[in-house]
Amino acid sequence: FDNLSQRLEGVWDTVRKDGKLTADNIKTPMREIRRALLEADVSLPVVRQFVSSVEAKALGTKVIKGVRPDQQLVKVVNDQLVELMGGQQEDLNDPKDGPQVILMAGLQGVGKTTACGKLALALQKKNKRVLMVATDVYRPAAIDQLVSLGERIKVPVFEMGTDVKPAEIAKQGLAKARAEDFDAIIVDTAGRLQIDANMMSELREVQATVQPSDTLLVVDAMTGQEAAGLVKAFNEAAEITGAILTKMDGDSRGGAALSVKAVSGKPIKFVGTGEKLEALEPFYPDRIASRILG
Ligand code: GDP
């Protein structure tokens, strides 16, 4: 955390003199931490909540001999970040019975369809027979995209064109998976450029129809400040079980990860790190914490 540590330099003589972190001597460093989080694109309300929880934890902490107080505080911040993001890696939920059903949600362009292919490939590598279901009836190109992803990894795609309602397509896709003994289905849904009431009610309908063991919200790591509002809207419309944070191979510091967890209470389960279908990794809170802190 060189970046943050550097910023925190210069305020430590006071802390050392006081012998512990106090409401007074913690003010300047907390402002720096706040700034660092905002620069990492953590949503403002989440930053506020986080900073006050760190403050509460840090207050009264005694300066340990031989450890620089700034490093001590950075550790408190880091631990708190990791804890807030769920502590450990969380995998997909186990299905209750029948095929594992994964419903994918998210705005247009975030990498949702790509993430379907990535998850399909990951499940296939675990020797599962996977079926992908295309329900984006607004964009024929999205159906074609899923079909061509499927061809690349040899995962079949169930589609009914654009004239059937998404929930009906999902229902028939699941019926096919049951009849043909697939282990898992991944349902791609229609995104929109912005949060949209129709998109949400459609998503809810598909969810009610197929009863997924996972509803994953796909979030572009570049979403920034808007992540909190986005997650809230989706989670209220169709309760999510987790998220996939895409485009983490870009410049983003990943602050959206903290926002997702803080707003929904649900974990990030995977991280997308490239356009290739192999570019999907489990989410490790400690790694993202260091990245957020810069
Ligand atoms: P959708 O509209 O949400 O289904 O988005 P797509 O799956 O079509 O992806 C939109 C664009 O983002 C495509 O050009 C993808 O190749 C790209 N993309 C998806 N995931 C990632 C990722 O993890 N990293 C990078 N760099 N690009 C990605």
Chart the SSEs and their pairings.
Blueprint: H1 2-8, H2 12-18, H3 27-39, H4 44-58, H5 69-84, E1 100-105, H6 112-125, E2 130-134, H7 140-153, E3 157-158, H8 166-179, E4 184-188, H9 197-210, E5 214-220, H10 227-237, E6 242-246, H11 255-264, E7 268-272, E8 280-282, H12 285-293
Parallel strand pairs: 1-4, 1-5, 2-3, 2-4, 5-6, 6-7
Antiparallel strand pairs: 7-8
Helix pairs in contact: 3-4, 4-5, 5-12, 6-7, 8-9, 10-11
Report on the architecture of this protein:
- The chain is of the alpha/beta class and 294 residues long.
- Helix content is 49%, strand content 13%.
- The protein is built from 12 helices and 8 strands.
- α11 links the parallel β6 and β7.
- The termini are close together.
- The mean pLDDT is 91.
- The structure holds guanosine-5'-diphosphate (GDP).
- The site of guanosine-5'-diphosphate has 19 residues, from α6.
Summarize this structure as a short list of keywords or feature phrases.
294 residues, alpha/beta, 8-stranded mixed sheet, 12 helices, 8 strands, elongated, binds guanosine-5'-diphosphate
> SSE order in H/E notation?
HHHHHEHEHEHEHEHEHEEH
State the separation between the terminal residues, measured CA to CA: 6 Å
Q: Give the mean pLDDT.
A: 91
**Contiguous runs where pLDDT drops below 50 for at least 5 residues:** none
Shape: elongated
